[in-house]
């Protein structure tokens, strides 16, 4: 049995990867720490159809599923895209919310993208409502990753009902956790790439640092964690797309493994960089701090471990 992406999904992922490589370099992520994110990466993803990929065809979308979008979100994680792609394309779009950058509180009380989102998908007693920007008050909150422009959001207007079905809200949460897991896998890959690049160039005792056995073992362990997490994300996307019975525990498994992969890769990258890795001038901190933030949103490790244990009857 072959478990992987087919040609269409690979082509869509690769197109997104190329676009983000051109338009969302580290300088774009760094600039978002002190001001609104550069709109060009988001515009490019919009033109590609990424934001409407999972929107129903009746709403002008492509009507595709999670297995197409999760690989793209992994690439957004690798690039460090500041905008709320998971909330917009994976959480809100399947509910028919289109043509807006969406922030949501489903992943936790601190809402990423609150500083510049155009619409807000908010949980209200088990259901979901959509609010325009002029229908909410936003309290900016400084977080470890300032590029996300988080805030606490309080509705002040009536908003519009999206769904009153608790099951639909639960599925929206699972899609958000899946997207966050995919972003974490992308971040883990990026931090490992940065570590490998650094130890290849840095030399001690006349040899590249990466030639030392202890460094090789550390980076091999980091790569192993990515190889554990990435297939779990792929399967969770498949399970959600096909409404399988194990979809929710599969999402939790993916989120837990992806968080672990990002933690192991981040720690290895930081140790390989040495003191320079702690500085804001190093690109590593942009991705390391994003991984710290995402590991704790859309359910932390304990939350998802408990969900898996409950599904297993433990």
Describe the overall structure.
- The protein contains 10 helices and 8 strands.
- It has 314 residues and is of the alpha+beta class.
- It has a domain at 167-311: Butyryl-CoA Dehydrogenase, subunit A, domain 3, CATH 1.20.140.10.
- The mean pLDDT is 93.
- 49% of the residues are buried.
- Helix 4 (66-79) crosses helix 6.
- The strands form 3 sheets. A 4-stranded mixed β-sheet has the order 1-2-3-6, covered by helices on one side. The protein has a two-stranded antiparallel sheet with strand order 4-5. Strands 7-8 form a two-stranded antiparallel ribbon.
Q: How many strands, what sense, and barrel or not for the largest sheet? A: 4 strands, mixed
- In CATH, the topology of the domain at 167-311 is named Butyryl-CoA Dehydrogenase, subunit A, domain 3
Strand content: 5-15%
Helix content: 40-55%
User: What would you call the structural class?
Assistant: alpha+beta
Q: What CATH first level of the domain at 167-311 would be assigned? A: Mainly Alpha
Radius of gyration, CA atoms, in whole angstroms: 19 Å
Uncertain runs: none
Pattern of helices and strands: HHHHHEEEEEEHEEHHHH
pLDDT average, as an integer?
93
Termini Cα gap: 30 Å
Oligomer: single chain
**Based on CA inertia axes, which overall geometry fits?**
globular
Strand order of the largest sheet: 1-2-3-6
Q: Helix count, per DSSP?
A: 10
How many strand segments? 8
Identify the CATH architecture of the domain at 167-311.
Up-down Bundle
Give the CATH superfamily of the domain at 167-311.
Answer: Butyryl-CoA Dehydrogenase, subunit A, domain 3
